Amino acid sequence: MLNRWSFPLLVALTLVAGRSLVAKPPETRQEVQRHGVLFEEWIRATFFGGYRPADYTQRWDIPADVNTNHGGVPVNPKAAKFGTPVDLGDALRQFDIAEPFLLIVGFWKQDGAVKRFVNVQAVQVEPDQWRRLWGTVSRADLERLDAVIKDPASDVLAARKAAQALKRQSPFRDAVMQVNPKIDAHQRRLQCSLRFADFFAHLAPNASRDATAQPELFGVAVPTGLASPPRSFRSAKSNP
Question: For residue 19, which of 1, 37, 5, 39 has the smallest C-alpha distance?
């Protein structure tokens, strides 16, 4: 099992090898995403016996049977910029969750070419809590929005306009969970996220949302500095 002092070695090996050590195949990971990859690897190595997924499309990043010391429920690790929404992935898959799970979120701040984790939370989410985040949104509502996003008869601009118009209507506008149409020349996906304040208000109401110099996870100091440059955006207008 690796401890917090082993983590810099993971970073060094990654830099030398020019590839990520975990999660998804390295060719699918951008340089600016390395922090999330390494954060997840540290979690797996430190608390879950170095587990590696057999299938990168599997339902849970860390299955329940691997989690023998922290509740025996599946685990979903995430990394997010401090103060910004927590991206949760595919909206339909997230909506279908109907079992308890452990959501681990590491919030980071950019410090030059380094990302420093400043707040890390692990919360066990119960099915009724999860359902309340969606409000009155139904699966049929999500499928309808997903169909608009993926409509082959609509070009990118038309699909984006239609999806955003639908998103601004009830029931989506009334839910805590935010739906995020991702539409450009390379993708047409429906994802979801929780605002920073909503994550704490609804899932971690007793936790501090302040930044700290040395966050901990399960009593172990979290490595705070990862070589990862700020994300740069092209001039093309991004999706809201």
Answer: 37
DSSP percent split of the chain into helix, strand, coil, nearest 5: 35, 25, 45
Q: In terms of Cα–Cα distance, which of 103, 91, 86, 76 is closest to 179?
A: 91
> CA 139 to CA 134: how far, in whole Å?
10
Domain residue ranges in the chain: 7-227
Please give the pLDDT value at position 229.
61
Q: Answer yes or no: are the C-beta atoms of 38 and 21 closer than 8 Å.
A: yes
Biggest CA pair distance of the chain: 53
Comparing 213 with 29, the larger pLDDT belongs to: 213
Better-scored residue on pLDDT, 70 or 240: 70
d(CA 19, CA 217): 26
The pLDDT, as a whole number, for residue 56 is 75
In sequence order, the β-bridge partners of residue 87 are 193
